[in-house]
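SEVERITY: medium
COMPONENT: batch folding queue
REPORTER: lab tech (J.R.)

DESCRIPTION
The queue accepted two submissions in a row. Attaching both inputs and their returned structure tokens so the on-call engineer can compare them side by side.

ATTACHMENT 1
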Amino acid sequence: MKNLLIIFFFLFIACSPLNKPEKTIEEDIVIENSEIRLVISRHGRALSLIHKPSGQECLHTDTNLPAFSFFQSRPYDNEVQLMFPAKPKTFNADTVYWRGDDLVVGFELESYLAVIEVNVNDDYIGFKLKDLEYEILDYGVKRRTEIDKFTLLQLPVQNRDNFGEWLNVSWDEQVAINLLATDPYAMIDAEERDGFRIFKAELHEEVKMKGVEVVLITTEKENLLNRIEKVENDFNLPKGVASRRSKEYKYSYYEIWDATPQNIDEHIAFAKKGGFKAIQIVWNSFVSSFGHYPWKAEYPNGMKDLQTVVRKVKDAGMIVGTHLWYNKVDKTDLFVSPVPDHRLSLRRNFTLALPLGKDSDIVTVEENPEGVTMEEGRRLLKIGDELIEYAGFTTERPYQFTGCMRGALNTEVSDYVQGYRLGLLDVDTWPKWVRLDQRTSIQDEIAEKIGKIYNDAGFDFIYFDGAEDVIPPYWFYTSLAQNKLYQNFTSPPVFSEGAIKSHFSWHILTRGNAFDTFRPEVIKEATRKYPLAQAKFVSKDFTSINFGWMKYVAPGESTIGMQPDMFEYVCSRGAAWDCPVSLIGELEIFKKHNRTSDNLEVIRRWEKARIENFFTDKQKEELKNSNQEHILLINEDGGFEMLPYTQILNVAEENKNVRAFIFQRNNKTCVVYWHISGEGSLELPVSSESVRLFEELGEEISLPKNEERISIPLGDRRYVQFDISKGEVIDLFSKAKIK
């Protein structure tokens, strides 16, 4: 009992603040600029955050939340670990005081002092971890312990009408509170609580701690982007705000996977019919593998041919971007075969338990391989300069990879001694690729190669595909890999998209992401479930997404193909949130599909109307109703007119070759209709006196007089107007005959 009391006495001494004169810590800490007044208690608790112009309190003030803390995976101090279990432990701030212009923070139970540089200006308040001081006491078994994570700032921010998870901002029409990283090294997050969120900036030992800075912005909502732009300029960040404010930000694009100097003119012609102001060229068009980027046979003159393609697009009045994979390389590339690069990513590491001869098809290892992938194309081990494809493995000793094919992907078979290290090659889930290890120089090397091609070709924007294919921690390497590319571009992209994003990526992926293609039969349902839901979500981050990629599909035995109403739906839902779309251009499919002109015309109308800000706020709210479809008409005066419309499902006794949609206009009942792929005529049991037919509104087609029935052409999209009720028109179309 006596020894225990002695231990507790020493712990009390060890936990006492170091170098903290009483006169400096009697008052609360106040940090303020012209907009913000942040108050932290002398014991390290976040007390108040006032937006000074409005007088609003922005914190949930009843939490007693420590503003600073650090985390260890288990207690590391010798005496502290004797007291607590071997599980993660957080040590909260218990003392805060000024030392000149720096904040000094002490912590419970540990002999650390964090020195935090405070940067105050009129746009934001910055917090930088300047140093971590440690006093080794002269009693007990003492050493400087590690810190696994350091919380540079955390605040209990009251909930407001909107929360942008990506940007980490809580806002309403009056005030916005934003905790923002100034580089990729801080993990920014917000933990949801009842009525508030804990805004948190964490620094991880495995990434970087000292010298990392975050900023706190509290301002009017209308000023938020101005404040962020100031941060971007002050810290030389990618220009996310300027991109979002550019005129090009609204542009949809036409994407090409097979662009060549020979076919680019034809692609441009189709892109113009769709009203596109941007063309995106996928790197598969001009390189035969990713990594060393050798030119395809279609580009015999290399960069000169690519420059020709880009110049033709720009001469046509469009901007031109590119779509590539940047954090992984082809299995066929020189980075993998015949000699795999030492900087490729390994998912698991193993040690040879027995020597491995050239003729052996069993690899015996010390570690249990349980859980390694059995997916086809991904079962590859890397040992030295050899790749080995395994067929199975054991999960009891002796641990073995069995049924091994040596020298996979044309690598050289060798002998290996006991104790030799090997690893599970990080083959992508799309198993044509092998991922890179971003901790090494290989991502920099790839970024330089890509940057040179991007700059020399004259590209204007970029899609960072496969952005998820990095090593953990993903919050860091996702944006780090993107930023390495960005820093190699001579001119910043006018906008960028990507497959996945982390907090710092907000400055880089200024249009969020595009969604993968959906089949014609499910495209409306999938648009409701994914792009429409995400657009609402990401709009709170002051960002749009891309509602495409829309794959162009011609009707066939197994599909009705892409039809005008499908493009109408996707484009209209995008317009609801000021979001672009994208179309994958395939020349042969365009030519094969008889409704290509109608499909491209639908895209052209919505694109032009959205870019020209035709839609009112009221109309945008109408378009957010995912269950009500809309049509964009060009009226008799040549102007746009948006109306709700509904599909007639039982045309000609549910004939699937005809699509018809009904709407009310000028007290008349109207139907837009077409054949999905062919030509013919549609007979309706109605007098011609009550019917008018239009090629386009204002372009009437004469009908023969008939008291009992009319025959109207069936093929391209046309409009028919009736003087009878909606129910009667639906009944007519159900009784229609196709000739």
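ATTACHMENT 2
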Amino acid sequence: MIQQIDYFVIAPPLALAVVAGLVLLLDVFLPVGTRTRSVLGLVTLAGVVAALGFVIAQAVSGTPRATFCVPPDLAGGGSGTLCSFVADRFTTAFAGLVLVAALVIVLMSMTELAGGGIPAGEWYFLLLCTLVGAVTLPASRDLVMLVVALELVSLPVFALTALKRYDGRASEAAVKLFVVSVVSTAIMLFGVSLLYGISGTVYLSRLAAVLSGGIAAPGATAGTHSTALETAHGLPAVVTVGVVLVAAGFAFKIAAVPFHSWAADVYQGAPIPVAALLSVISKAAGFAGLILVLVTALAGQSSTWGPVIAIVSALTMTVGNLLAMRQRSAVRMLAWSSVAQSGYVLAPLAIAATAATPQAATGTSVAYLVIYAAMNLGAFAVVMLVSRTAARNELDDYRGLVFRSPAAGIALAFCLVCLAGLPPGLAGLFAKIFVFRTIVEGGLGWLALVMAVNTVIGLYYYATWAARLFAPTGERALRRPSPTAWLAVGLALGVAILFSVAPQLVLDMTSLSATG
């Protein structure tokens, strides 16, 4: 039987892959120079816009569509169709987040590459490959595609980090990222192999049915588990090991404690657009995969992973905030702040499978992640502007930024206020309220208390940085930034302001759910 492919469903990653090939061809045949770098950047930008257009079209259609499906006569027992690629609200939400963030990062890249020290063709090709994986991952509905998509997100980032040649910190950051990613992939694959060995399937929906006892495992009758599966809890300890290993693999990707130690060194050593990519796109892909695995495939095992996620969430937000307080480097502070924000995103997932409304719990995490991404991109865009005149890029270099460059200073102040959850950054305030309300309603009062304490801790270092922006100074003004740098700042700030003046958009996101 010939496999029928719905090309509209796979249009976003397909468009990005085609443009990636086009960028390589143009880089080969066009002469090296400033004009070629600009052309490659514009082609990359056009590819991202085209992919975003397809995602918007899928969202507007409102009907979930799937492709790469198993024919009914080969699907075996159980209900429902087994598909590897699904475009639903969950998919379009994450794909839209990734591609809007990609627009900002491409604009930042055009500024970063203007000096000519980094090969533009390789840079944009690797960036597009990462985007292909990041757009594919939330649509993946089997374990194999999840792992492949996650690696497609991770592998190009090693090279992007190391493309800043003759920079020792960049090389060190690339090696650290490579080692961490290899270890996390090995752990995750071990967990995946255990789950596959127990269930006999790689499809998330079928895996959920087998592990919850809805259908038979290999060698068992319908509605029962095999002899090997029959324990006090209906499943052997190896399932618990598999669940924990898969969750640990994703924890590496989102820099959750205790798998967080790589974040600050890698962020500081990488070019700033790559640090922004790791902070937003890579993190979003990691959370998309984690939500799919936990909520869609392993909902029946929530008694195993729920308490673990709650504890990891509390440790992540606490360690991230405490380490951020000690930083003097702007990028390192954003790195540890990013770790702390991961803890806030994780909190609702701890009760996602057991809550009265699991969709609301999952949607709260997605909404917080979207808001955090907008604010963080704005902060990184301004940090890139300052880095052009301050090589060390420490917090003291931002003293008096509002007077030296009013637009950049006010933009950074607004983003920091939003990240702290203070007015007029209503988006950040509402996001924290939604998370707090969700975990209280889910019965995790102790986690809500930890979050409240950490929110106060976060206020300290965000307010300290923001205060420096308004301190008087006699330093020279910033070097005149390129138009693309200001476009990056403007786009990120525009999204942040949109969420702040229209909080209903955030409320709408809380209806999102991960479907299988």
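NOTES FROM REPORTER
The beta strands are 65-69, 83-87.
No errors were logged for either attachment.
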